[in-house]
Design goal:
There is one protein chain. The protein is an alpha/beta fold. The chain has a single domain, classed as Rossmann fold (3-Layer(aba) Sandwich), CATH 3.40.50. 35% of the residues lie in helices and 22% in strands. It contains five helices and six strands, in the order αβββααβαβαβ. The strands form two sheets. It has a four-stranded mixed sheet with strand order 2-5-4-3. Helix 4 links the parallel strand 4 and strand 5. Helix 1 runs parallel beside helix 5. The chain starts with 11 loop residues before the first helix and ends with a strand. InterPro entries: Nucleoside_phosphorylase_CS (IPR018016), Nucleoside_phosphorylase_d (IPR000845), Nucleoside_phosphorylase_sf (IPR035994). Its EC number is 2.4.2.3. It catalyses: uridine + phosphate = alpha-D-ribose 1-phosphate + uracil.
Length: 143
């Protein structure tokens, strides 16, 4: 298996540039982002691995593309299942669920409401990764 490791910068605009170029110039088929996040749910512990199944956001990226439609970008199930099965086999504390892609690093968000709706963590790139992967019929996973 050929693997290329690439930085993606911080935030939706930055990762959007990298993902577009990887897909359109290098014909990448599978994109796996490994990054950091902040826990929202109280039962998510430090060092738990979160596999982002879906991504909610305050970014306008999909509003620009879809107008009044709320598009819900999600991970590729095959990549998600492989990552989950591998983590389980290696006894890694792993969680699968929704994350929140934020446009601002320091901002007051309704964290309790997000937790109530099952959002596990907050980060800044997953919505863009999953949306662009879907647009170009590619597979993506955010860890």
């Amino acid at each position: 298996i050929r693997v290329s490791v690439q930085g993606s910068g911080m935030g939706v605009p930055s990762i959007s540039i990298y993902v577009n170029e990887l897909i359109q110039s290098y014909y990448v088929q599978n994109l796996i982002r490994v990054g950091s996040c902040g826990a929202i749910k109280r039962d998510v512990n430090v060092r738990d691995v979160i596999l982002a199944q879906t991504s909610s956001t305050d970014s306008q990226m999909n509003r620009v593309a879809f107008g009044p439609i709320d598009y819900a970008p999600c991970a590729d199930f095959g990549l998600l299942k492989k990552a989950y099965d591998t983590a389980e086999a290696k006894n890694v504390a792993v969680r699968v669920g929704n994350v929140f892609t934020a446009d601002q690093f320091y901002n007051e968000k309704p964290l309790e409401l997000m937790a109530q709706y099952g959002i596990l963590a907050i980060e800044m790139e997953t919505t863009a990764l999953y949306s662009l992967a879907a647009k170009f019929d590619r597979k993506a996973l955010s860890i």
